[in-house]
Amino acid sequence: MNSMYFTEEHQMFRESLKDFLQKEVVPHIEKWEKTGTVERFIWKKFGDMGFFGLAYPEAYGGLNLDLFYTVIFLEELQKINSGGFAANMWAHAYLAMTHVNKEGSHEIKEKYLAPSISGDKIGCLCITEPFGGSDVAGMRTTAVKKGDTYIINGSKTFITNGVYSDYLVVAAKTDPDAGHRGMSIFIVDRETPGISATKLDKLGWRASDTAEIAFDNVVVPANQLMGEEGKGFPYIMQHFALERLIMGINAHARAEYALDYAKQYMSERTAFGKTIDQFQALRHRYAELYSEMEVCREFNYSVAYRLDKGEYVVKQATMSKLKSTKMADEVINECLQFLGGYGYMEEYPMARLLRDSRLGPIGGGTSEILREILAKMILDDKNYKPAT
Fold first, then answer.
1. Catalytic residue among 243, 256, 292, 334
2. Is 110 an active-site residue?
3. Residue ranges of the domains in the chain?
4. DSSP H helical segments within 91-206, as ranges?
5. Each residue of 226-241: pLDDT tens digit?
6. CA distances from 302 to 195, 199, 239 (A)
7. pTM as predicted
8. Which fold has domain 124-230?
């Protein structure tokens, strides 16, 4: 492993996390993949181990560690071959909780962040809307001020942890006439009247509960507004940098897992009197795929290093997701081919890995949107600035 970024303490953490996942998670994966429900007990175990608090302040029960502990957390989650389980964990810890930590008041952090770190509460982030997709600025969900409350109406879709979470971080228009400048962020309890969730049936990520959520005259106290009214869009854009980097890291990690599995298989599978890793066509293609994975991995580590130092890396994180997710799909598709007919069988890991990986170029901003964002930054000198 790259000692330029990882210390001995990092490596000890990686080994303890691997052991934990093998003992506590892997035995349940097949059941969760079938039921589409990750049982509550594992969230508490993650909390007890401190895994949800890696990047968060000690004041709320976190560990306040550097970003490479998060990198390790993400990488190892990808290597137990359940993209859905991994998504449940990181969508809670780095999508919902990031907004609570950055924009929430002290009271909100005590009520939501602390129990999120301990594994007693699960969060979800509600931004994407039906037919809205990556067009965040075109959001239609509204939050109308009424006395000391807001009334939320609208719907969200493709929300990870959208069925079983305890609270929702919701983006809504507080000033529909102000475009993206009229957007705000709220935190809403699941049991609030008027919230309903419908579980979605997906190609992959089958262990995760992905939902379409409706808000019908949902009354939210005004003190559940997070940050400043009207600042929702820059908050979202700022945190997208982390989300995109997370998805880039996830991509290189699952590609590495696929390559490791294919390498082992190819060293054991014989054809025409020799193992198939001795055939030039296969070994050269494998070497090329491994090179592409390692280029993405090294780039992602460098972006993580810069983000950890406080740099605003929205351009580089966007590049990370764009290139790494494309690479992962290509690598996993080719690794499935290396396994031949067995690659197509569900009892081998490649079939699920291929399904789960396919969301990479879609979620968190489609590759098409990312190309346009990069074009604006590179060709038009567009300068996206942090909100806080």
1. 243
2. no
3. 8-121, 124-230, 233-379
4. 97-103, 106-108, 114-118
5. 999 999 999 998 898 9
6. 41, 37, 18
7. 0.96
8. Butyryl-CoA Dehydrogenase, subunit A; domain 2 (2.40.110)
